[in-house]
Amino acid sequence: MNHAVNATVHSACGSEPGLISVDQALQMILDHTDHLGTEILPLSQALNRFVAEDVYSEIQLPMFSQSAVDGYAICMDTDMPSRSTFELIGEIRAGQVANFELQPRQAVRIFTGAKIPKQTTTVARQEIVQFDGSSITLTEALRLDADVRKAGEEITIGQCLASQGQQLSIGTIAALSMAGVREVSVYRYPKIAVVITGDEVAETVEDLNSGKIFDANAPLIQAWFQSRNQQVDILHVADTEQAVCDLFTNLRDQYDLILTTGGVSVGDYDFVRPVALKLGFEQIFWKVKQKPGKPMFFAKSERSEQGTCYLLGLPGNPGAVYVGMQIYVATLMDALQGQKLLPQWFNGVISHDLKADSRERLLRMVASFETGILKLSSLPKQQSHMLSNLMQANCLVRIPAHQNIQSGQVLQGLFI
Amino acid sequence: MNHAVNATVHSACGSEPGLISVDQALQMILDHTDHLGTEILPLSQALNRFVAEDVYSEIQLPMFSQSAVDGYAICMDTDMPSRSTFELIGEIRAGQVANFELQPRQAVRIFTGAKIPKQTTTVARQEIVQFDGSSITLTEALRLDADVRKAGEEITIGQCLASQGQQLSIGTIAALSMAGVREVSVYRYPKIAVVITGDEVAETVEDLNSGKIFDANAPLIQAWFQSRNQQVDILHVADTEQAVCDLFTNLRDQYDLILTTGGVSVGDYDFVRPVALKLGFEQIFWKVKQKPGKPMFFAKSERSEQGTCYLLGLPGNPGAVYVGMQIYVATLMDALQGQKLLPQWFNGVISHDLKADSRERLLRMVASFETGILKLSSLPKQQSHMLSNLMQANCLVRIPAHQNIQSGQVLQGLFI
Q1: Residue of A nearest to B144 (CA)
Q2: Topology of A346-415 in CATH?
Q3: pLDDT in tens, A101-156
Q4: Using a CB-CB distance cutoff of 8 angstroms, which residues of chain B are in contact with residue A139?
Q5: Fewest beta carbons less than 10 Å away: which of A28, A50, A304, B356?
Q6: Which residues of chain B have a CB within 8 Å of the CB of A374?
Q7: Which among A125, A127, A347 has CB closest to B372?
Q8: CA B381 to mean position of chain CA atoms
Q9: Was domain A40-57+164-187 assigned CATH 3.40.718.10?
Q10: Do the beta carbons of residue A264 and residue A273 sit within 8 Å?
C-alpha cells in the first residue's frame, strides 16, 4: 500500500547534486542568527515569550503556614484520640490576620487558605468535628500536622522560579503570578514584514478569468502568526526587479525579518534572491534537498546601528509555504529570541510502505495513539500546490531521501 | 519509586460516597449544553472556530491546467526521445492568459503555475532543454503528461471543502483561501464573565501583610483564553452573599457563561452555589470524585429570550483551576460551539509506580517519546495550592481512583 499517491507524473527535478539537507538547513539557521535584545513586559502580555533573565522569588510560597481545609486549627502537642475536646476561641477567614495565640486544648474556626494562628499543631477538617457553641469534639483520631500547608514548602525566598530561556506558557504565567511577579524580562520578538510575490495572485474575482489564482499564502502566514499571538505586516509586490528592489530597500531599515513567498527559484521572473544579493544581503543557504520547498533561500544583511536584518525566502507553492512555516520559520522565530533549538521531532511508527524519492519529503499525515504507540498514516494529495489534506492532517513526517520505507519503521515528525 | 510526593500530611477528605466521576462530569457537560447559534465571519477572524455549515467549492483546483515547473509547454502526441526539437512560438508567465494554440512540434516558454496553452501534451522542465533562439532541443527523453497539474485534479466544483464541525486551523484557513472562500459560517463563541471570589486575593503589595495572597487564577484564566485568541471580562467579588448575588443577577443577563473560581465548597463563606440556586440556576452537578477540584459546580439558567446562561464554578485553589480549564472548560467551550466531544485522551506508558488514592487524580507530568512510545513521568509538588511544577509539565495524566499503578501501565492523558 502506498498512500502518498501523486496524480501528476513528476519529472526527476530536484536530484541535482550540492543541495543541503533539511538538518543542515536547520543547523545553518541556528548558526547564523542572534537574538534581537530583550525588553520588559507585563506578565499579561508575555504569553509564549522566552524569559531573558532568571527570575528569583522575592517571597516564599505558601507565604505563611495555612489551613488546607475548612475546619479548626488546634493546639495540642501529641496525636489526639477520638472524642478529644477543645475550647473554641474565635474564627479566622482566608485573607484575615491571625491575631490569636493558641494555648493547649484551644481551637479556632479556620477556612481553606487562612493563616493558622501561633502555636497551631494541626488542623481538624470540619467533617470530623462536632461543634457545641463554645467547644468542639473530634469524631475521629487526629495526627499532628494534618491539613497544614507549611510556609515555604513549595518555594523559598530567592529560589529560581523561571530560568533564562523558559517559555511562558499558561501554567508558567500562573505560577509566576502566584509568586507576585508582575513583569518579566523577555527576548524581543522580531518585527516582521511578509512579502507575497507573484503576478498570478488574484486581487478580485474578475482577475480569475486571466490566469490568476486565489492566494493561500497571505492567509496562511497571517493565521500562523495569529495562533502565536503575534501580528505581522503583509505586503504584495509585482514580479519586476525594480519593484522588488524598491520594496526590499525600504523594508530592510524597518524590519528584523523579511519573509517572502515565491520568486526564489531559477525562473526568469524570480527576483527575490538576485535583488537581495544586489542589495548586499549575504546568502546563508539556497536550495534544500527537500520536497516541498527546494528553492528556499536564507540571507542576512548587517545594518549600521540596528543589528541584522534577516531574509527568509520561501517558495511560492502553498504546500511549501506551509512546511516552511511549521519547520523553518518556527525554528527561526525561536532562534531570533535566543532559543537555538532544533525542532523537537517526535518518533512515530509508520503504518504502511512508502516508495523512495530523491529528496527528503515532509508529508502531511494523521498521527494517532494506539496503546501508547504513535501510529502514522499518510494522506493523498501531497503535492506542493495542494493544501486540501490539511483538513485531516495533524502532523508533518520526515521521509528520508533515497529510502524505501516499510510499514513499522520509526520516523520523525512534528505535530501541526 | 513514587514521584508524586506530597509534603503536607493529608486527611482522607474526599472519600465520601455519592460523588460523580470525571467521566460522568464530562458527559453531563455534553448532555446539558447547547450551541449558542451561528455567525458569519471573515476567514481572517475565524482561526480556531468551528464551521457551522458545510462549505462547498465554487471553483475547481487547480482552476486551469498549469505547468508544475519553469520550462516549456510542448505539443507532441507521443513520448519524445532525447534530441527532439520544437519550434518556440512565445512565452506565458504565471498570471497571464494563454492565447496560444500549439501545433505539433511547437513549444512555448512557460513558468510554474502558468496556464498551459491549448493542445499542450507535456511540459519539459528547463533543466532538460537547450535553447537556441527560435527552437528548443530536449537533452533527455520526455514522457507525455510530465509536469502538468491538471485542472480539477485536487478539487472539483461543488466538492465539500470543510464539513460542519471542522475546526479552522492554520492549514484549513489556507486551504479555504486557496479555493476563494472569503467568509465562513461558524458557531458563536460564548461571551464569558470570569468572577474571581475570595477576600484573600491581594490587590496591592501592602495587602500581603494581612494574610492575603497573590492571585494566580485571573492571570491563568486570562492566558488560557489569550492562547485561544479569545478575550474575557475578569471581575472580582467579595465573600459576601449580597455582593455575589448582585453580581450574578447582573451578569446573567449579559453573558453566556459565568466562570467562577472559589466559593463552591461547603465553607461558611462559600456563596457561589447557594446564590446561584437562589437565583434560579438549575444544578447540573456538584462535587466530582477528583483531585484536585472536588467541589466543582455546574449549573444553568434559562432566560426568556436570550437562551441559556451557564455557570461553571471552579474551586479556588490554582491547581484545581488549572486542571479545570484544561479539561472541563476546554470541553465546555467546544460544547457551546456545537462540538459535543469528550477530551481526546492520549495513551501513554507510566515509567514508575504510584500509590492508590480514594479519588481520581489528574497529575502534572512530563511526557516524552521514546522510539514511538509515549513515556510518562510524574513531577513533585502536585498539591492543589501549588503550581510551580507547571514550569516542567507538558501533560495532565489521569490516575484512576483506588488503584495502585505499576510502572509500564498504560494511562490516559492530555498535552497542556
Answers
A1: A9
A2: Beta-clip (2.40.340)
A3: 999 999 999 998 899 999 999 999 999 999 988 999 999 999 999 999 999 999 99
A4: none
A5: A304
A6: 369, 372-374
A7: A347
A8: 28
A9: no
A10: yes
